[in-house]
Design a protein that fits this description.
Oligomer: heterodimer
Number of domains of chain B: 2
Distance between the termini of chain A: 23 Å
Distance between the termini of chain B: 58 Å
Number of strands of chain A: 0
Structural class of chain A: mainly alpha
Radius of gyration of chain A: 20 Å
Largest interface: A-B, 21 and 20 residues
Order of helices and strands of chain B: HEEEHEEH
Helix content of chain A: over 70%
Strand order of the largest sheet of chain B: 3-2-1-4-5
Structural class of chain B: alpha+beta
Number of strands of chain B: 5
Shape of chain B: rod-shaped
Radius of gyration of chain B: 35 Å
Strand content of chain B: 15-25%
Helix content of chain B: 40-55%
Number of helices of chain B: 3
Order of helices and strands of chain A: HHHH
């Protein structure tokens, strides 16, 4: 059980670090895209307000929720490996 | 300096490559000729080449380990240990040691009437250190020349390469959007400090400084040369 607990804890820490990093990365990409789109559309209105509105829309969309797969996929992979090596 | 750099890169490549070579699954096509169980002393540094089948085993000085003996098509001996990896590293999540031993026993064959099998294993055999690769699975195949495509390795190495690419893109994005603007800001701030310093120096000269400067204008110029 100690080995299992260690696996869970280490995996959770690694996943959380990765989740934070990839969330920062994806939001940064979206922010850059919004800034460029604002310029392409003729730079009208307040830039910050335009970007913030776009970011709120992005946060409400599906993409940031998909990032939670960072926690799901390793568990599924472990299940598959466990089945493939020990139950077949 | 260049040699130091290349040496460091070579050492890094050796460590990463060695780690992957030890950990990733490999396939041998062999004939199983026997199995045995032997008590192993595990209290020196070669302990890292043995598994931790359960929590108690980490503290044991010695314990029984099962082995599978095999011979490949060229007649070379292959001996595998057969140990649970459990929930520990490497992440094979192998719990079926007893079943695997039974299957190996069932697939035993002689040179005259061979039954070829693929043994999937990880780890290294070294006679001096007395270490053995750990067998993960055994399945029968038609003959010793069967072509095996290492799908698991292809997938794992592709995913690893993808992760490296992603980390590199993340770093590039961070540098472009966070570090470089901050550096530009520092540069501008430094320019402002510089301007202020010039202005302050001008002010600090004061009346006395201006008088000295005026005196300087009366100083004799070097005589013109003829």
């Amino acid at each position: 059980m100690i080995a299992f607990a260690r696996l869970v804890v280490v995996l959770f820490v690694v996943q959380t670090v990765f989740y934070v990093l990839i969330r920062l990365y994806v939001r940064s990409l979206r922010r850059e895209k919004l800034e460029k789109r604002w310029e392409r559309e003729g730079a009208q209105g307040d830039r910050d307000a335009y970007v913030e509105a776009g970011m709120r829309e992005f946060d409400a969309s599906l993409t940031p929720k998909l990032l939670l797969l960072v926690y799901v996929i390793p568990a599924v992979v472990i299940g598959v490996i466990l089945y493939a090596t020990s139950f077949r | 300096m260049r040699y130091v750099k290349w040496t460091l890169w070579a050492i890094l490549a050796l460590i990463v490559g060695g780690f992957l070579h030890y950990t990733l699954p490999q396939h041998d096509i062999v004939r199983v000729v026997g199995t045995y169980q032997e008590r192993q002393d595990l209290n020196d540094w070669t302990r890292i080449f043995w598994a931790d089948p359960d929590d108690q085993s980490a503290a044991l000085v010695n314990r029984d380990v099962q082995f599978i003996q095999a011979v490949d098509a060229r007649g070379r001996e292959r001996v595998y240990r057969n140990e649970d990896t459990g929930w520990s590293w490497p992440p094979y999540f192998k719990f079926d040691t007893a079943n695997l031993q039974t299957r190996a026993e069932d697939l035993k064959s002689t040179a005259a009437n061979p039954q070829w099998v693929v043994v999937t294993h990880y780890g290294w055999r070294n006679q001096v250190l007395s270490i053995f690769p750990n067998a993960v699975s055994i399945r029968p195949v038609a003959g010793p020349d069967v072509r095996i495509i290492p799908w698991v390795n292809i997938v794992i190495l592709t995913v690893l390469a993808g992760m490296l690419l992603l980390l590199w893109r993340m770093w590039a994005q961070f540098r472009e959007r966070t570090i470089e603007p901050a550096l530009a800001e520092v540069g501008e701030a430094w320019d402002r400090v510089d301007d202020r310093a010039d202005a302050a120096r001008e002010r600090a000269r004061g009346a006395w400084g201006r008088f000295r400067a005026w005196l300087g204008t009366w100083r004799a110029k070097p005589p013109p040369r003829h």
